[in-house]
Amino acid sequence: MQLSAQLDERISKCEGILSNNPESLIFAALSDAYRKKGDLAKAFHVCSRGLKLHPDYGPGHLVMAKINMERGMYSEAEKELALAIQAEGRTRTTELLLAQILIKKDQLKDAKKLLEKHKTADPENQVVGELLKAIQQKADSGKPGYDVMAVQERWRIERVVDLKDGVHYLKSLPGVLGALMVGEDGLVLESKLNPTFKEELIGAITASITRCVKDGISGIGFGEYEQILIHMENLEFWIMKFSQQAFVLCCVPEANLGALKIRMSELLEHLSRNI
């Protein structure tokens, strides 16, 4: 409880400073406090914005490395750590964090070599001892440390910063022929389509369908629509409500709708938190 209260106080102070001076380097301390609170999504976005303003700020890259490490994005954590080292030089903190990342990436030989160097210099260091023990346990189990595909997909979603990015991300998914963001009036706000599609027509169709659905269910008492899926002979037409707009996907009939739904749900949750 005391630690949580201290973190809340630190967050409040840092947010006050950043509010008065958006270019302040306090962003690193703020994002690290959010990380320690367990709010990794908030930590990521605060740190990401700060690094856009201060791309050579080593402590910011170090915090981002820790955030990515805790989110399971180990390759990105290693890249951020390299930038921190480039800016500030190597320290025991950066070397131990690198060892943890290497362990997660199953690069056990490299991690062990790094840790044994520190054990020679500091035989009583408990962190080094625990990491060496983790290497042995992982080597004995023979199991991989992380799901590469899952990590890469989470990273792609985390890099979405606005609705335009969201549309482009959706268009890149397997089986998606077109992705759009459509307003209530049918105006297409953003689109990424195959050449055969006409965005104005899709926007008008989307507005007509959603209007009919809203009118039809208004008196039933089941609430507002969340998604509308229309199966056609050569197309899956999928409308997903988001705030006052809607994401629209045009997919091939063979598309894996289950996998798409998982990614869409993660994307909508991400956008709801951060936009």
Descriptive notes:
This protein has a five-stranded antiparallel beta sheet with strand order 2-1-5-4-3, with helices on both faces. The longest helix has 19 residues, at 2-20. The chain contains twelve helices and five strands. Helix 3 runs antiparallel to helix 4 and helix 7 (108-121) packs antiparallel against helix 8 (126-141). It is elongated. The protein has helices spanning 2-20, 27-37, 40-53, 58-70, 74-88, 92-104, 108-121, 126-141, 148-158, 163-171, 199-217, 257-274, and strands at 176-182, 188-193, 227-231, 236-242, 245-251. A hairpin with a 4-residue loop joins strand 3 and strand 4 (236-242).
In short:
The protein has 12 helices and 5 strands. The chain is α+β, with helices and mostly antiparallel strands and 275 residues long. β3 and β4 form a beta hairpin.
Secondary structure layout plus pairing:
Elements: H1 2-20, H2 27-37, H3 40-53, H4 58-70, H5 74-88, H6 92-104, H7 108-121, H8 126-141, H9 148-158, H10 163-171, E1 176-182, E2 188-193, H11 199-217, E3 227-231, E4 236-242, E5 245-251, H12 257-274
Antiparallel strand pairs: 1-2, 1-5, 3-4, 4-5
Helix pairs in contact: 1-2, 2-3, 2-4, 3-4, 4-5, 5-6, 6-7, 6-8, 7-8
Q: Can you tell me the CATH superfamily of the largest domain?
A: Tetratricopeptide repeat domain
Strand pairing plus helix content: what structural class? alpha+beta
Count the strands?
5
Q: Specify the biggest β-sheet.
A: 5 strands, antiparallel
CATH architecture of the largest domain: Alpha Horseshoe
Low-confidence stretches: 145-149
Radius of gyration: 23 Å
Beta-strand fraction estimate: 5-15%
Could you name the CATH topology of the largest domain? Answer: Serine Threonine Protein Phosphatase 5, Tetratricopeptide repeat
The structural domain count equals 2
Helix content: 55-70%
Q: Distance between the terminal alpha carbons, to the nearest Å?
A: 30 Å
Q: From N to C, what is the helix and strand string?
A: HHHHHHHHHHEEHEEEH
Tally of DSSP helical segments: 12
CATH C-level name of the largest domain? Mainly Alpha
**Major sheet strand order:** 2-1-5-4-3
- Basic shape: elongated
State mean pLDDT (0 to 100 scale).
87
